[in-house]
TrEMBL record:
GO molecular function terms noted in the UniProt entry: pantothenate kinase activity
Pfam families tied to this protein: Fumble
Keyword vocabulary terms for this entry: ATP-binding, Coenzyme A biosynthesis, Cytoplasm, Kinase, Nucleotide-binding, Transferase
InterPro entries: ATPase_NBD, Type_II_PanK, Type_II_PanK_bac
EC id: 2.7.1.33
Protein's UniProt keywords contain Lyase: no
Protein name per UniProt: Type II pantothenate kinase
Gene (UniProt): coaW
């Protein structure tokens, strides 16, 4: 059981997950749990904030934890990212009133990491380089849109019909052996005939389709390996991104698994790091 309690005195407990793209911070103040996130470029500002805390216990995780530690002038615990994420997921599940102890966990961060949790023990079983970094990188290349919030807002208004090739497009005039609505090829439609007229909205929606379908397809296969049909999806790639959620949810359901998106799931690593300080 992971439990967060107000600690005696005025001390603050702080968990930080410094990832490839974003730094996630979870901390308790007067018994209230707070969440913040910053671009990794602001790692120095986060370090200064930590250095200015007078009475605090700190635990750091994530791929950039070493960089952050080197900027601190006080002691901090360091934790393996996968352990912290798992602890944080358990905490957030309990907050949602759930007691799952076996599931597949897919963390769609800059890259995508997949973990099998069985009887509360986690094991990393795979991943894919297609993740939130792909979403941002390809979107920028294809449309020139640089801002994440603008990207995901525009994508919601786009249709993938002219860009993606569906199974039914290939099986012309006969019934396909699998659902005709499945994507046969992301970006595989005759896009060069319409390339000059494709809108930013269409291109962004297609990039999100590519990322979402890849992540969910790999997850569904991993869930079979893990003997579990519940797939918990976390990571900042879902933040303000209803289209990615929709693609991942519908693909996961179509393939017979049960998707679950955690509230504040992007803070799993930070919350997990914080929970070891209680
Ligand atoms: N404000 C934002 N700026 C940039 N990307 C954002 C923003 N909000 C959400 N994202 C999305 O979230 C992704 C990063 O997710 P997350 O914070 O979970 O990864 P990370 O922990 O930094 O990376 P990793 O775990 O792979 O080291 C980005 O690639 C992008 O798709
Ligand atoms: Mg991460």
């Amino acid at each position: 059981m992971v439990e967060m309690r107000e600690r005696a005195g005025a001390s603050m407990i702080v968990g930080i997950d410094a990832g490839g793209t974003l730094i996630k911070v979870a901390y308790t103040e007067n018994g209230t749990l707070h969440f913040d996130k910053y671009p990794i470029a602001e790692i120095q500002q986060v370090a200064s904030w930590v250095n200015d805390l007078s009475d605090s216990d700190i635990c750091i995780t994530g791929g950039k934890s070493g960089v952050l530690l080197s900027l601190l002038d006080k002691k901090a615990l360091e934790m393996v990212e996968f352990e912290a994420t798992h602890l944080g997921v358990q905490f957030l599940l309990e907050k949602m009133g759930r007691d799952d102890d076996s599931y597949l966990l897919t963390n769609v961060g800059t890259g995508t990491s997949i973990h099998c949790v069985e009887n509360n023990q986690q094991e990393r079983i795979g991943g894919t380089g297609i993740g939130g970094g792909t979403l941002v990188g390809l979107s920028r290349l294809l449309t020139g849109v640089m801002d994440y919030e603008e990207m995901v807002a525009l994508a919601r208004k786009g249709s993938r019909d002219r860009i993606d090739l569906k199974v039914k497009h290939i099986y012309e005039g006969k019934t396909p052996p699998i659902s005709g609505e499945l994507t046969a090829s992301n970006f595989g439609n005759k896009i060069f005939e319409v390339a000059h007229e494709l809108s930013k909205e269409e291109l962004l929606a297609a990039v999100i389709g590519l990322v979402g379908e890849t992540v969910s397809t790999v997850s569904v296969h991993a869930a079979k390996q893990c003997n579990n049909s519940t797939i918990i999806y976390i990571g900042s790639s879902f933040f303000h991104n209803p289209l990615l959620k929709e693609v991942v949810e519908s693909y996961t359901v179509l393939r017979g698994a049960v998707p679950l998106f955690l509230e504040n799931g992007e803070y799993s690593g930070a919350v997990g790091a914080m929970s070891v300080l209680k």
